[in-house]
Structure formats: structure tokens, C-alpha cells
Write a structure and sequence with these properties.
Blueprint lengths: L12 H8 L3 E6 L6 E3 L2 E3 L8 E4 H9 L3 E4 L6 H13 L10 H11 L7 H24 L13 H25 L10
Antiparallel strand pairs: 1-4, 1-5, 2-3
Helix pairs in contact: 1-4, 2-4, 3-5
């Protein structure tokens, strides 16, 4: 959702990608490596062709050096995404997707499109899902009141996009509600 500059006070998409890069992903290593300690914890050992779970930051580093293949998450497939798109366009509520699906998908599709089956189709499906979800977000924000906004199954990127607008709108609604409420009588005492 494109927001005007004054409303862009949230975390940037690259920062969200950095946060998402801590998630674990499976790789098929092409090199052997002993168990290695990093700040975020120990990973390994890596023994080809046995799959291993490592953080996305490590997987992308190894992939860029042609030392592994990244195994895409099960949800990063044409069948799964087509099913989610059908749910998004046919139901009023948001379908359930991994919390950081947009960030993880972008990282994997940018770094390892050769490891993903049909990456172009997946990009189009992700774009369509995102547009459908943005339309639902806009609808939900139109029904905003000062007490509550319920948008279940929002993902990290979507929450980040609407946060500045939502915070500002809730402040304005609360201010208006307070002004419209009748003043309580003051008690001066006996």
C-alpha cells in the first residue's frame, strides 16, 4: 500500500526482510562444513546431500557462493498460492499465510529463483494475493471506529503498512469522541 511520506514512519521493507532472514529454511549443501557457532547460534554440520536447516541469511550467503541449493518452504508453491488466492478473492476474511510470507518469498525469489519451481508464476500469484489482501485492508480501515479494528491473519508487511495510518486515525477518532461526549459534572465537595 503506497502511503504518503508523512505516514511512512514504520519499519522499511528491507528492514522487515532483515528480520525475516532469521527464520530457518532447509538447504541442500554442496559442501561439507563442521558445526559452526555464530552469534545467533550454532549451525551444521553440513554434509551433502543431506538437508540441513539454517537461517535464511546463511542460506542466501551459501547460495550466492554456489555452495547450496535452497529448498523452498511448502507454501511457496503454485498449488498452495492458487488455493490462497481463491480464498482471498472469495471470502471476506484474510486467509492464513505465514506471518512473514512476503519477506521470505522475496528473499528466496531474488536469491534462488533456480531452486523454485515456476518462479514467474509464483511472483504473479504473490502479487495477486497481495493486491486482494490490500483491498481487504482498505475495506477494513473504512469501517474503523475508535473502539476496535479486527483484521485477523494480517501478515508482518501488511501490519507495517497500515500501522502509521491506523495509529493516527485512532488518535483522531479518540479526540473526536472525547469532544462529542457530554462533560461530566464536577463535584465541588461539601
Amino acid at each position: 500500500m503506497a502511503l504518503p511520506v508523512p505516514l511512512r514512519t514504520s519499519v522499511t521493507p528491507p528492514e522487515l526482510e532483515l528480520i525475516a532472514s532469521e527464520q530457518l529454511v532447509e538447504i541442500i549443501p554442496l559442501i561439507a562444513m563442521e558445526r559452526t557457532a555464530f552469534i545467533s547460534g550454532p549451525y551444521g554440520p553440513l554434509r551433502p546431500p543431506t538437508k540441513a536447516k539454517v537461517p535464511i541469511w546463511m542460506a542466501t550467503n551459501l547460495k550466492l557462493k554456489k555452495k547450496c541449493h535452497i529448498v523452498p518452504p511448502s507454501w511457496l508453491s503454485v498449488d498452495f498460492l492458487q488455493e490462497r488466492l481463491a480464498l482471498e478473492t472469495s471470502k471476506a476474511e484474510f486467509s492464513q499465510l505465514p506471518f512473514r510470507f512476503a519477506e521470505v518469498a522475496k528473499i528466496i525469489l531474488d536469491i534462488a529463483p533456480d531452486d523454485v519451481e515456476n518462479p514467474d508464476k509464483i511472483r504473479y500469484l504473490l502479487k495477486d494475493i497481495r493486491q486482494a489482501r490490500q483491498a481487504k485492508s482498505r475495506e477494513g480501515l473504512q469501517m474503523i471506529d475508535h473502539n476496535e479494528l479486527s483484521l485477523a491473519n494480517l501478515c508482518s508487511m501488511e501490519i507495517n503498512e497500515i500501522r502509521p495510518f491506523f495509529v493516527r486515525a485512532m488518535g483522531v477518532l479518540t479526540h473526536i469522541t472525547r469532544e462529542a461526549a457530554p462533560a461530566e459534572p464536577q463535584f465541588d465537595g461539601f
